[in-house]
């Protein structure tokens, strides 16, 4: 195969030259591609496993050294930083989507499924960088693409459980509890997508999609929170001021 696009991506986007470029190729190879191409033997799930651990360590280390807060709050902030949507967005920003190898079926699949694959690939790329370039290179990548968003996570309250937070807002401003309704189900049973709407009284406040109703409800709640933040900008914020750790 032609490794040139992967070599160029590593230089331009990751700022390094891989000793073993096959690691990066594997990081961007989805299981479905291996199933469709019998001459291929390795996909990115093992690298994803490793990268997930490195990602958690780096973010935990940063939060511990930077903020003096209870374990529960730091766990919530970390979860917001490394949730699928966050790392999927980091993958889009890196621009490796054209290099991801997947089956034709996955290529023609739903957008939400593509976003999950991009997120998984980000963790796998972290794993590949860690193995090939070392911990500091992996930490630099995570700092630039994930930890740099910590201010936004705190300011917009992304660290809070979306459904619980939306309930607080709806009760505060409207005096009612939000209700979730499934609006649509599509796709085969093994890859079904649900679209859920969250209603406050008779008003639709947000919609969300996911591979489970729970995931779809969570995304709908996030959209509902955005609505309240837009309507009540002076009253709705992150509600959290992290205390800096002593140096």
Q: Can you walk through the features of this model?
A:
The protein is mainly α. It folds into 2 domains: 4-155, Ribonuclease iii, N-terminal Endonuclease Domain, Chain A (Orthogonal Bundle); 162-231, 2-Layer Sandwich (Double Stranded RNA Binding Domain). 58% of the residues lie in helices and 10% in strands. A 3-stranded antiparallel beta sheet has the order 1-2-3, with helices on one face. Helix 4 packs across helix 8 (111-133) and helix 6 (84-94) crosses helix 8. It is flat. The N and C termini lie far apart (50 Å).
Q: Brief description of this entry?
A:
The chain has 247 residues and is mainly alpha-helical. The chain folds into two domains: 4-155, Ribonuclease iii, N-terminal Endonuclease Domain, Chain A (Orthogonal Bundle), CATH 1.10.1520.10; 162-231, Double Stranded RNA Binding Domain (2-Layer Sandwich). The protein contains twelve helices and three strands; from the N terminus they run H-H-H-H-H-H-H-H-H-H-H-E-E-E-H.
